[in-house]
Backbone:
């Protein structure tokens, strides 16, 4: 049984598909960590508060307001309450930029952190800016490139701790669509991936990204007439898409010393692709860094409240 009296605040990472929360004490120690599949994409505006309470009800004390610091898609136009973007160049947003949400439950004091926008070329991020804040806490004054792999991968350039520009690539979503809904699905392994085929595809497309559309259909053709195995087909599809992304990113971002935020297979694929091209990438745990960014926001909340 979790002791409510030890809980000082709640951190929430509210994405499109999932909601993750951490209940923490005054020293920043995690008392409880929970998640649900009630992401922004499944909820109407009136359903956000009930979804949060469902996950945290036993963590909230009667007669006491518990601060809840939220990052991610809960602050989008389709979310709980829109948290306006900050514009680059800028440092990561702080709690001073947050949107205060009016809640029905008197036990809640909800603040949603804003995202970051870029006008030329047009781009936006929500949630990643909190990961960036957590990263910069250990890398103050960082200048270089940060990559946040995922369904929509972000590449971010820094100058002395300031976000100067960023680009989003729909590589993960494209892979999901092509592997499940296109003609390529007939020849792909469901999970197993040929590492050699992946590396070969990365190297090929990085030098000739203009051939991507043709090379993608070539996966289907090779399966029909050249005995390309399902595992090699999956590896080649992933390698072509990530390799083409790296080819597009190299003009605006330094690929030589990339920091990758992520500890899953997607981050591993990016690290492998960069290695194929002769670049070293340092991989950092995204969940740990997200929580660190939320803790930084709460620290500023505590100073204002005290």
Residues:
């Amino acid at each position: 049984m979790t002791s409510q009296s030890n809980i000082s605040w709640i951190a929430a990472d509210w994405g499109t598909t999932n909601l993750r929360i951490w209940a923490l004490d005054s020293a920043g120690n995690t008392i409880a960590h929970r998640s649900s599949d009630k992401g922004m994409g499944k909820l109407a505006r009136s359903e956000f508060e009930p979804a949060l309470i469902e996950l945290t009800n036993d963590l909230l004390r009667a007669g006491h307001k518990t601060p809840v610091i939220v990052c991610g898609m809960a602050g989008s136009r389709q979310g709980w309450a829109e948290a306006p973007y900050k514009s680059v160049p800028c440092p990561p947003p702080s709690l001073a930029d947050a949107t205060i949400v009016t809640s029905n439950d008197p036990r809640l004091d909800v603040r949603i952190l804003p995202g970051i926008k870029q006008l030329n070329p047009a781009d936006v991020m929500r949630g990643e800016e909190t990961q960036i804040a957590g990263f910069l806490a250990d890398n103050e004054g960082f200048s270089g490139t940060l990559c946040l792999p995922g369904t929509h991968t972000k590449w971010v350039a820094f100058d002395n701790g300031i976000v100067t520009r960023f680009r989003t690539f729909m590589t993960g979503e494209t892979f999901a669509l092509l592997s499940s809904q296109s003609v390529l699905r007939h020849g792909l392994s469901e999970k197993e991936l040929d590492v050699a085929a992946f590396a070969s595809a990365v190297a090929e497309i990085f030098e000739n990204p203009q051939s991507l559309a043709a090379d993608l259909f070539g996966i289907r053709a090779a399966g029909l007439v050249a005995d390309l195995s399902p595992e090699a087909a999956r590896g080649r599809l992933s390698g072509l898409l990530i390799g083409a992304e790296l080819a597009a990113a190299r003009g605006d971002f330094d690929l030589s010393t990339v920091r990758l935020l992520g500890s899953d297979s997607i981050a591993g694929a990016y690290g492998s692709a960069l290695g194929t091209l002769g670049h070293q990438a340092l991989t950092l745990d995204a969940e740990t860094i997200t929580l660190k960014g939320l803790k930084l926001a709460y620290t500023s909340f505590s100073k204002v409240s005290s």
Observations:
- Residues 230-249 form the longest helix (20 residues).
- The mean pLDDT is 94.
